[in-house]
Each structure stands twice: as C-alpha cells, then as structure tokens.
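User: I'm writing a short report section on ligand binding and want a predicted complex to refer to. Could you take this sequence and flavin-adenine dinucleotide and write out the structure as tokens? A short remark afterwards would be nice.
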Amino acid sequence: MNIYVLLKKTFDTEEKINVSNGEIEDDGAEFIINPYDEYAVEEAINQRDAHGGEVTVVTVGDEDSEKQLRTALAMGADKAVLINTEDDLEEGDAFTTAKILEAYFEDKEADLILGGNVAIDEASGQVGPRLAEYLGIPYVTTITDLKIEGENVTIEKDVEGDVEIVETSLPLLVTCQQGLNEPRYPSLPGIMKAKKKPLEELEIDDLDLDEDDVAAKTKTIDIFLPPEKEAGRVLEGDASEQVQELVSILKNDEKVL
Amino acid sequence: MNFELTKEQRMIKKMVRDFAEDSIRPKAIQIDKEARFPVEIFEQMAELGLMGIPFPEEYGGSDGDTLSYALAVEEIGRVCGSTGLSYAAAVSLGASPIYYFGTEEQKQKYLTPLANGKALGSFGLTEPNAGSDAGGTKTTAVEDGADYIINGEKCFITNASFAETIIVTAVTGKQSNGKNIISAIIVPADSEGLTITSNYDKMGVRGSDTAEIILDNVRVPKENLLGDPEKGFKQFLYTLDGGRISIAALGLGIAQASLEKALDYAKERKQFGKSISSFQAVQFKLADMSMEVELARNMVHKAAWLKDQDKPFSKEAAYAKLYATETAFRAANQAIQIHGGYGYMREYEVERYLRDAKLLEIGEGTSEIQRLVIARQLGC
Ligand SMILES: Cc1cc2nc3c(=O)[nH]c(=O)nc-3n(C[C@H](O)[C@H](O)[C@H](O)COP(=O)(O)OP(=O)(O)OC[C@H]3O[C@@H](n4cnc5c(N)ncnc54)[C@H](O)[C@@H]3O)c2cc1C
Ligand SMILES: Cc1cc2nc3c(=O)[nH]c(=O)nc-3n(C[C@H](O)[C@H](O)[C@H](O)COP(=O)(O)OP(=O)(O)OC[C@H]3O[C@@H](n4cnc5c(N)ncnc54)[C@H](O)[C@@H]3O)c2cc1C
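Assistant: Sure. The structure tokens for the complex follow:
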C-alpha cells in the first residue's frame, strides 16, 4: 500500500508562547509534530506493518521542519518529503497548503492519506478535506478506528463523543482523532536509522506552482493571547443568600440573564 | 567551536524526556517510598534502545555516542534519581568494561544481552575494607586447571540482585615489585557459591538496588578474565573515568529538576502579599542555581565530547563529576529552602532530590577522590 501522512510542525502549546506585534515569537518557542499528526504517523506505520507497502511523510513548511520529519522517520516511516515554502511564500492558509499538496499528489498513486484532525496552532481542520476534494477521493474526519480489508474500509468516527461507523473504500483520506492509537516513542535505533532514510526537499517551483496559484484566501487581522484566567470568587452566607448573590452577579455584572 | 547538539542528540533528549515524564515521573515518589526497583521501567527502556546507547549495533547496541548517553541519563535523573543511578551503573559499569576490554567472544556472549536490555549487569569493585582505596582489594581469584576459584566479599554493588552478570575485581597474583595484580573477571550471577543479598536501608536512591555479594569458592572458566591480565587496575580506572561522566549527568539532572521546582514554586508562592520570587534573597538563590546548572552541563558535555573524540578525558570527567554532583546537592538544598516547610515534605519531591544527590558525592569515587584525581593530573 502507498501510504502518505500529512504532517505539520507546530509550536508546543504546553510551553510558554509570546505574542508581539500580532505575531507569535518564534524565538524561544518549542516546536513539535502536531499531536494529531502523531496519531496519523502511528496509524500509517501500523497499517503498513499489517498490509505491506511504504509510508511517506509529507510536510509543507520550512527548513526547520526537517526535525519533525526526522522524528517521524525515527518512529518508523520510510520516506519524508519537505515542501519548503520559506523563500517563496510570505504567508499561507489552509487553501495554500491544500493547493500545494494537490500539486504534490498529482502524479502519486496514494492508496491512503492520513492527516491530523486539526493542527493545534490554527485549528482550521480544513487541509485534509480540501485536499481530498481536489483529488476527488472520499474522506472521513476525526477517525478513532480504521480497518482495511482489500479495497474495503471500515471506520469508526468520533462525532462529538458518539461513534459513527462508516464504510468506504480506497483510495481514501482520513483525519485522525485522539483515541485512534497510542503513538510510539521514536526508539534509539530508530533515531540512528532515520539519519540514513531519504528526505526529499522540494520548492513550489518544482511542483509547477507560482506564488499566485497558492495565494492565501484569508487574511489574519490580529493574533492575541486569551485573557488571563482570573481568580474565582467564593460566595458567602447561607444557601439562599448565595443564590441571591449569584443571580445578581449574573444579571448585573456578567449580564447573561 | 560549536555548542549545538546534533539533530539526533536533540531527538534523543526529547524522546527520553517525553518517556521519563510519561512513564517514570508518576511513579518516582512511590519508588522512593517503597524502595522498589522498577523492573518494568527497565523493560521499557530496553525496548526504546536506551540500555545500549553507546554500543555498536553488532552487539545489540544503538550506535549512539557518549554525549547522547549523557543526555539520556540527565533526563532520567531529572525525574528519578533511583532509576537514573541504576541506569548509569548498568551501562557504564556493568556493560562498558566488556565493550572496552572484552574479546569478540565475550562481547557476543555477555555484552549483547546487556546492550539490548534483555539483562542487567553489575560491577563489583568495592569491598568492606576497600572503598576509595580500590588497590586494597582482598578478594582473590586463584587458578585451578582451566578455572579461577574466587573468594571474597563485595559491598554496595548496584543492580546486583537483578543482574545476570557481575564483573568482579580480584587479586590474581603479584607483580615483580610485590604489588598485587588486580584483574576483572566476568561472573555469571547464578554461579554456585555466589550469594547476593540486598538488605541496605538507604538514605536516598532507595529504588536503586544495592547489594552485598559473598563469593565462596566460586568457579568460573579462565576465559572469563576481562582484558589484559596484567592491566586490570588500569582498566577499571578507565571504566570509572567513563562512569564519572554518567554520574555527573545524573547530578546535572537532579540539579536541573531542583531549579525547575524551585522556580515554579517561587513564582506561585505568595508571602507578604507578593510572590516570593520578587524577593531578592530568593532571586539570588535561583540565579546561582541556574548558573551552576548551566556550568555543570557544559562540563558534562565537554567531558563526553572528549571521550567521543578519543581524546584524554580523565581530568574533565573528574571536574564534571565533582562539580555536577556538588551542584546537585547545593541546588536540591536551596530548592528545599525556597519551598519552606513544604519542601521538607516528600510530596514536594525536593527533599528526595537532596537525599538522592548525596549519594552522587560518594559513589564512583568520593568528592575527595575526584580532587585527588585532578591534583594528580596537575602533577602533584
Ligand atoms: C548506593 C551505592 C551504590 C554503589 N554502587 C557501587 C557499585 O555498583 N560498584 C562498586 O564497586 N561500588 C559501589 N558503591 C561503593 C562506592 O563506590 C564507595 O562507597 C565509595 O567509593 C567510597 O568508598 P567507602 O564507602 O569505602 O568510603 P571510604 O573509602 O572509607 O571513604 C570514607 C571517607 O574518607 C575519604 N577518603 C578516603 N580516602 C581518602 C584520601 N586518600 N584522601 C582524602 N579523603 C579520603 C572519602 O572521601 C570519604 O569521605 C556504591 C555505594 C553506594 C552507597
Ligand atoms: C516539621 C515542621 C514542624 C513545624 N512546626 C511548627 C509548629 O509547631 N508551629 C508552627 O506554627 N509552625 C510550625 N512549622 C512551620 C514553619 O515554622 C514554617 O514552615 C516556616 O516558618 C516557613 O514558612 P513556610 O513554610 O510557609 O515558608 P514560606 O514563608 O513560604 O517561605 C518560603 C521561602 O521564601 C523565603 N521568604 C519568605 N518571605 C521572604 C522575604 N520577605 N524575603 C526573603 N525571603 C523570604 C523563605 O525564607 C523561604 O525560603 C513547622 C514546619 C515543619 C516543616
């Protein structure tokens, strides 16, 4: 099977994030594989081990994305492709990424493409579905189980906490949700071997694309941190006094009643 | 000059940190409290290839370097000193001598299971009456046909109760100048006449197994002699030089953990209406801790780098061990101080850091012995 994983480098939202002049500061931010994409990598490796074939991890990013690709190779992926847009594009959005990927996949015979459900930085959740539309293949989002028998695929999909069972067929694109699997740690031998695995670097030019073909469809107006959580208030007095005070707060201060 | 870690080294550091955070940290308090050797953690570490980082693939290793290994020890030590000590001892003392000095056959037979983590190794040097003065070894190995017969007693031996092989040092003869010849011999832990007991009730590193070994007419084939029969003493001095880098890395991990805990706590804790981190007295402590941690890290990395470049590293390993372990003790002590009364309680972990750090100033050569090693290198 020809298996592809769409992988994005994101900053680690568990580390401190600084915003200045409407932009996230790169210096000091820790970068990781988008956590949902880790499920995709793990699933791709498991499906390859079960059905044979090859796993190729593809990212649209910059030079530093190599680290995340190498990590995926260390986990067990076979090949990696870095589509480096650093020199060509000032900004991009889900449209940009999906368009670039469409061009990349044009001459590939992908049986299965796996992506994360969303990227934790921008959380659009659109790249996967857009790409499937462009490629004219079916897609299922937020999957929590994937069974492949021949061309037939049975999927469990998370729908806001409930499970939907979907039957479909290859070729197929899925986006992965927490619960699908437990991503492995890259092992030491895996890390050492990753050094020798192929990592191809492309620019949009190599895909016969111009800056204009992929110009973002959206504009980012501002980026800001959520307001700091304020200390809670403990209401005092007996139950009826507390209820009265609560209702008064909801009415007068918070104006939600 | 380049202070950057390679991509692989950074990946290894991150992987070990993630693993340590997820799989070791939640158990660290319990491991200490119950003085339980965490066998299951060592199985997981074996699966990840951590037990064989500095050994080649052909012997079951991971083909990494000393620096990668030091990064791994630091990250494990950062969450659990007990696991860190047993890890460092298994690799640097249990397995490394076989890699450095073993014959091809010994490497295949004894190093492979240690490097791929199927078994643990131990190194028995210390005796009740020969600690710092390892030359005073009393254990003897006497030739008898094709075998050695070993008699003696070893104490404070890390991992011995869980080990499959123990490298034991013993007197095998006398040099022309009348000095004892001390050699290292590989002794399978299930040999007849070998008794291992671990009854020590320790101050720290309580989850690391520490055992006493009695050798009563233990018979092993002569081919189990490790390395040059005349140079046993030199060989284990070299082994200890390497081991010091790992103990230094462990100290660094504990110092790093102390700094992180103290800094987080100081920012959160309010007294006199302010965070205690706004008091200069607390700030200066944190500034010193942070500086010393970074200096220790530079020294550990340099010593490891020298070893990886096949350059002399004995003095630098002693610097690293001495400085990083004393930094660990100071940093843990200050972390407790910054935590006030809470720091004295097990739940806050910093008191454990202090107990664990204390061992590092004793094991694999006391701080005094490190100063002796350095002074000797200065030509004193
Ligand atoms: C938890 C633990 C794990 C250990 N693991 C191992 C192991 O796996 N394998 C192993 O072989 N050993 C191991 N040891 C033993 C350890 O290496 C020794 O305890 C250490 O070398 C010190 O020896 P000693 O305890 O006999 O102290 P001594 O040598 O009796 O030292 C007592 C004091 O005298 C000082 N001193 C001694 N000589 C001099 C000198 N010439 N100049 C100045 N001061 C001096 C020392 O620095 C120390 O302060 C372990 C010990 C512990 C506690
Ligand atoms: C075993 C034990 C027994 C105890 N017994 C008793 C008892 O019988 N009765 C009782 O009342 N209490 C008792 N205590 C409490 C003890 O007195 C307090 O723990 C101690 O006063 C420190 O207060 P704290 O723990 O709140 O630390 P904090 O006051 O929060 O101090 C934390 C750190 O901040 C530093 N700090 C705080 N303010 C400043 C400042 N302005 N400038 C510079 N540094 C500052 C402190 O020196 C310390 O390093 C006991 C504590 C323990 C551990």
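A remark for your report: Chain B touches chain A through 20 residues (CB under 8 Å). The two ends of chain B are 31 Å apart (CA to CA).
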